[in-house]
Design a protein that fits this description.
Hypothetical Protein Yqey, Chain: A, domain1, Arc Repressor Mutant, subunit A, about 0% strand, about 150 residues, globular
């Protein structure tokens, strides 16, 4: 079963269970998927749906930072709850060791030695770690390796 089908089935299940918060989050997700399909005139595959989920999680993490900076822990908790619901559709996160191995492999494969080589390294890493690691942290780790 495709990821998109799984999400649509979960919307129906949440509606039947009367879980309004889950229905709200899943409807936002299905709307984002549908919007991308309409904009690009394509049917999204699992990798593309995963990218949409990952983007929504990233947006919520950024919102949490803003809410915490604005001393609004109540709103940050709502965003965190939404992240937990969305995270169910993301693959298992990479351990630090696994991520470091992916980074080492990408640097070696591209022959990167300086910051000018960061683009090809990130281009190679993104499809492998999308949804399994925070790309902001991946970028920082690659930058640290290429500088040092």
């Amino acid at each position: 079963m495709s990821l998109k089908t799984s999400i649509l089935n979960d919307v129906k299940t949440a509606m039947k269970a009367g879980d309004k918060d889950r229905v709200k989050v899943l409807r936002m997700l299905t709307a984002a998927i549908k919007q991308r399909e309409v904009d690009e005139r394509i049917e999204l595959d699992d990798a593309q749906v995963l990218a949409v989920v990952d983007k929504m999680v990233k947006q919520r993490r950024e919102s949490i930072e803003q809410y915490q900076a604005g001393n609004r822990p109540d709103l940050a908790e709502v965003e965190q709850a939404e992240i937990e619901m969305l995270a169910a559709y993301l693959p298992e996160p990479l351990s630090e060791g696994e991520l470091n191995q992916f980074i080492d492999d990408a640097i070696q494969a591209t022959g990167a030695t300086t910051m000018a080589d960061m683009g090809p390294v990130m281009g190679r890493l993104k499809p492998e770690v999308q949804g399994r690691a925070d790309m902001k942290q991946v970028s920082a780790a690659v930058r640290a390796r290429l500088v040092g």
